[in-house]
C-alpha cells in the first residue's frame, strides 16, 4: 500500500505525552484507592455480620422419611416453614449424646410457645421394623420427648447413615465399634427454607468471623483445656447462648415458598 504524497510523520510532543501518562497514573491510583476503600468497608461490615452461616440446603428429593414415636411416618420436609433443631442419639448408649440432649430439652422449654419451632431426635440404633413404633414410644416416654413439638424418629441404618452423612453434613460418620456408637453429637439447625445454618461469632480484633457448628462436646473439651471465652461464662454456656440467639435470628427470617 502506497502512502499519500503529502503524508508527514507526526511530531512527538514529549511534554504532552508525559502529561497524559501522569493523568493516567493518577486515574489508576485514585481508582485503586476507591476500590480498596470500598473493599475495606465491605470487609469491616462482614467481620461484624452475625447472620447465621448457610452450609447446605436439604431438598424435598433428598429428604428423610422416618417412623415417629406415634407410629406415623413423617418427613423432615413436612416442617418446611419452621425452624428445626436436630440431633442424633443412641438408645443403647445415651451417654454419648448427653450434653446435646440436655441442650435439646432446654430448647424445648425455652421455645415451647413457638408453633414454628420443632426438635427432631434421630435414633441411630438399628430397630426391627415391626418393633420400631413400640420402641420409639417407650423411649419417647422415658426421655420426655413429646409431640407435636419434638419428634423421635428413625429409619433403616443405610438410609439414616446416608442422610446423616450427605445431608446433615456431620463431621463424624456413625459407626459402632465394640458395642458402642460413635457419631456427631452436635445440634444441627435447619431454617424455614431448609438450609442448614451455623452460628457466627465476629472476632473482636478483626478477621473473618468464627463459624460454630454447636458441638457441645468440643466446647466441653475447650473448657477442660482452660480455653477462655473472654466472658464470665465457660465455652459450653457461651455456645448455648449462641445457639439460642441463632435460633432467634432464624425465627425472625421469612419463609420463601
Summarize the structure.
This protein has 257 residues and is an alpha+beta fold. The protein is 37% helix and 19% strand. Strands 1, 2, 3, 4, 5, 6, 9, 10 and 11 form a 9-stranded mixed β-sheet that branches. A two-stranded antiparallel ribbon has the order 7-8.
Please describe what this structure looks like.
The protein has helices at 14-47, 98-110, 132-143, 157-166, 216-224, 235-252; strands spanning 53-57, 65-68, 73-75, 83-89, 117-123, 150-154, 175-177, 180-182, 188-190, 195-201, 210-212. With 257 residues, it is α+β, with helices and mostly antiparallel strands. A hairpin with an 8-residue loop joins β10 (195-201) and β11 (210-212).
Percentage of residues assigned to helices: 25-40%
Regarding quaternary structure, what we see is single chain
Calculate the mean pLDDT score and round it: 87
Taking pLDDT < 50 over at least 5 consecutive residues as the criterion, the unreliable ranges are 35-44
Cα Rg: 28 Å
Please provide the ordered H/E string of secondary-structure elements: HEEEEHEHEHEEEEEHH
What's the shape?
elongated
Strand content: 15-25%
Superfamily (CATH H level) name of the largest domain: Glutaredoxin
Q: Tell me the total number of β-strands.
A: 11
CATH arch. level architecture of the largest domain: 3-Layer(aba) Sandwich
**CATH domain class name of the largest domain:** Alpha Beta
**SS-based class:** alpha+beta
Structural domain count: 2
Gap from first CA to last CA? 68 Å
Largest sheet: 9 strands, mixed
Q: Which fold name corresponds to the CATH topology of the largest domain?
A: Glutaredoxin
Number of helices: 6
Amino acid at each position: 500500500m502506497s502512502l499519500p504524497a503529502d503524508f508527514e510523520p507526526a511530531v512527538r510532543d514529549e511534554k504532552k505525552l508525559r502529561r497524559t501518562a501522569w493523568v493516567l497514573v493518577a486515574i489508576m491510583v485514585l481508582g485503586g484507592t476507591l476500590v480498596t476503600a470500598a473493599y475495606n468497608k465491605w470487609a469491616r461490615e462482614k467481620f461484624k455480620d452475625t447472620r447465621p452461616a448457610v452450609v447446605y440446603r436439604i431438598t424435598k428429593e433428598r429428604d428423610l422419611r422416618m417412623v415417629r414415636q406415634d407410629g406415623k411416618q413423617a418427613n423432615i420436609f413436612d416442617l418446611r416453614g419452621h425452624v428445626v433443631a436436630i440431633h442424633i442419639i443412641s438408645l443403647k448408649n445415651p451417654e454419648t449424646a448427653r450434653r446435646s440432649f440436655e441442650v435439646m430439652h432446654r430448647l424445648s422449654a425455652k421455645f415451647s410457645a413457638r408453633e414454628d419451632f420443632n426438635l427432631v431426635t434421630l435414633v441411630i440404633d438399628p430397630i426391627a421394623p415391626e418393633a420400631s413404633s413400640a420402641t420409639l414410644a417407650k423411649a419417647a416416654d422415658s426421655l420426655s420427648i413429646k409431640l407435636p413439638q419434638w419428634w423421635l424418629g428413625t429409619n433403616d441404618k443405610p438410609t439414616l447413615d446416608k442422610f446423616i452423612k450427605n445431608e446433615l453434613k456431620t463431621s463424624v460418620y456413625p459407626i459402632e465399634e465394640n458395642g458402642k456408637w460413635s457419631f456427631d453429637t452436635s445440634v444441627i439447625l435447619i431454617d424455614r427454607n431448609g438450609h442448614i445454618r451455623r452460628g457466627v461469632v465476629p472476632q473482636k480484633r478483626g478477621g473473618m468471623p468464627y463459624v460454630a457448628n454447636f458441638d457441645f462436646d468440643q466446647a466441653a473439651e475447650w473448657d477442660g483445656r482452660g480455653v477462655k471465652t473472654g466472658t464470665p461464662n465457660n465455652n459450653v454456656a457461651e455456645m448455648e447462648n449462641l445457639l439460642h440467639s441463632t435460633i432467634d435470628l432464624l425465627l425472625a427470617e421469612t419463609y420463601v415458598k
